[in-house]
Amino acid sequence: MMGRRLLIAGNWKMNLDLYESYQLAKAVAEGVESFKNIDVLISPAFISLGVVGQKFKDSNLLIAAQNCHYEDSGAYTGEISLDMIRSTGVDWVIIGHSERRAIFGETDEIVAKKVKHALSNGFHVIGCVGESLEQRENGEQEKVVKTQVEAFLQNLSENELKNLVIAYEPVWAIGTGKVASPEQAEEMHKQIRNIVNGNAGEEAGESILILYGGSVSLTNAEELLGQQDIDGALIGGASLKQESFNGIAAIAEDISKE
Ligand code: PEP
């Protein structure tokens, strides 16, 4: 953490209909209303973004889209532009989640294009990186993550970089219950910070938020969030229940008060 403000982010993925999204957003907003030391973000599906974005825009909840397109408008059936997202009151977007990469074929190049497009349009971006199990077993994790992070950093101005949050999510830990050990996570977070340092200078490296994602739960959150270079969490499964999500946010709030 080291002077950086922790961010607890929930990625709801393709879960919850409009009504359920509204209910969960309300429960989360009420639960974190009194938290002063951290930021809390939820990311509903596009279909719910309008209602959730509008209803909670004056709460202290941050709200993100789970994806966006890299063009402003046009013949891209089924895609969603940044202007559409912004019209719901939302100016955060998660880009390059491993499910987008693995299932929907988003390459480092596409992800970098989206990151640049969103940042240059004034959005805050959570850019996701992380190695697969096979890559870790082959000892390639550092190389893979370095390539992914460097793809983001190309062509970003100093101001754009200020709105980038990086989420390190080892693919083998997402939705599997297999969490990276605090040491494994911290080692990679340190490496990512060093890459940002090297590419954009020490100030950028010291201030950028690096979230950990991959089976974060009420049981492991305290240890993970206690690591020096872990500045929050991107949470899938445990973000779908207000008890676990708000509980993790409460842990982060407590750590931040210390
Ligand atoms: C995620 O999808 O970003 C994620 C980390 O999922 P889970 O917490 O379920 O592993």
List the helices and strands in order: EHEHEHEHHEHHHEHHEHEH
CATH structural class: Alpha Beta
Q: Beta-strand percentage?
A: 15-25%
Q: Using DSSP, what is the number of strands?
A: 8
- Derived from helix and strand composition plus strand pairing, the structural class reads alpha/beta
Explained architecture:
There is one protein chain. The chain is 46% helix and 15% strand. It contains 12 helices and 8 strands. The protein has helices at residues 18-32, 46-55, 82-86, 98-104, 108-120, 133-137, 141-153, 158-162, 182-200, 202-207, 221-225, 242-257, and strands at 7-11, 39-43, 61-65, 92-95, 124-129, 164-168, 209-213, 232-235. The chain has an 8-stranded parallel beta barrel, surrounded by 6 helices. Helix 1 packs across helix 2. The protein is globular, with a radius of gyration of 17 Å. The mean pLDDT is 96. Phosphoenolpyruvate (PEP) is lined by residues 11, 169, 174-175, 213-216, 234-238.
Task: Please give the structural blueprint.
Blueprint: E1 7-11, H1 18-32, E2 39-43, H2 46-55, E3 61-65, H3 82-86, E4 92-95, H4 98-104, H5 108-120, E5 124-129, H6 133-137, H7 141-153, H8 158-162, E6 164-168, H9 182-200, H10 202-207, E7 209-213, H11 221-225, E8 232-235, H12 242-257
Parallel strand pairs: 1-2, 1-8, 2-3, 3-4, 4-5, 5-6, 6-7, 7-8
